[in-house]
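Prompt: I keep going back and forth on a fold encoding question. Comparing notes only helps if you start from a blank page. Show me how you would write down a chain together with its backbone fold. Please set it down just below, with no commentary around it:
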Amino acid sequence: MKSVCILLQNHYEFDIRVRRKAETLVAAGYSVDVLALRSPHAQKTYTLNGVRVCSLSLGKQRGSLPRYAFEYVAFFLWALVRLTIRIPWRRYDVIDVNTLPDFLVFAAVFAKWTGAKVILDMHEITPEFYMSKYGITKNSWWVRLLERIEKISFDFADHVITINEPIQDLLAGRGLPPAKSTVITNAADEARFVSYSRSSAADAAAVPGTFVMMYHGTLTKLYGLDLAIEAFAMVHEEMPGAELWILGQGPEVSLLKALVQQRGLGSKVRLVGVILPNEIPAWLSKCDVGILPIRRDVFLEFASPNKLAEYIIMGKAVVISRLKTIRHYFSEDAFAYCAPNDPAELAKQMVRVYGDSGLRARLAARAKREYAPISWNVMKQRYLRLMQDIVVPVRQRAETSPTAETTGLSR
């Protein structure tokens, strides 16, 4: 049986992208281990849907650069030791390393020496992430250092995964050979939404005759929830029965609660709190429109959020910021676009979709058609072909694969 170890400095059960990959591998007959952070109340080791998880209790108390550095180094050392001591008895074929940080890939150094192939899945683009978070300029020594670490990290890997083509092109400009990279988009697993279980909490929250605009995910400044509240405050009187539901937790929750009270929207804006991944489809079934007022900056121009795919699969129209990567994949007819960082234009789009059910249906249908080429059904096969290409020896692959073109290692 082919064996894979996945490294992830995050809580595995809440990282939908990594869970999709791991469970896809298990379904395809791979043995899969994960080294990750331990979430509250989770066990040190556990098995979830056939994936064996070993976790480190480290916490995620990030904010300052020194704290980021401490957490990154601590997890790196733990993963390096844990992975190395497993090598004699696990003999992994592939180590799948998920950023951030980029240098986590070097935790696989001893595994690579024993013959394991190393994949670096670059969830985020690190230099742009820190430029956005801390206002660091592109010409600073810190950004140059991050770009250098990024390059030596993808040079060390046998193959690199990126989440969209604009990021792939950006990294190519920084030295990543195109032939060494594959795009696996942030698509959602359609099967989760076809056969989802009903949620009593979602059912209880729904009120007949209510028009629900919904956001679900981490509550950070990046996703512009304060802009959504400001926009709704401008036009809620024009939208009888309309409500804004905000699902999730994050550093902005206290500020958002205060803003809701300041704008007198306590009866119209609901901050629902944490929703487990398996509950998301039931909640989305209760909404009329998805709201993604993502801010624009050097990092968010490359945003490719999981939640967008989930709205599309559920057949919901989406009001979203007009950003580079989103426009790369979707036309003007797929979403109700608004200018980033502009609550007034966001408010206009809220009113527009509220008053036109036919428009909502047309937007949802067009988005679903344009999403089909990058859906998880397509990405899953691409990921499995990539793993097979890496795992199977060259001579054996030549005997079993009719042409090199079937491996799908390009875009």
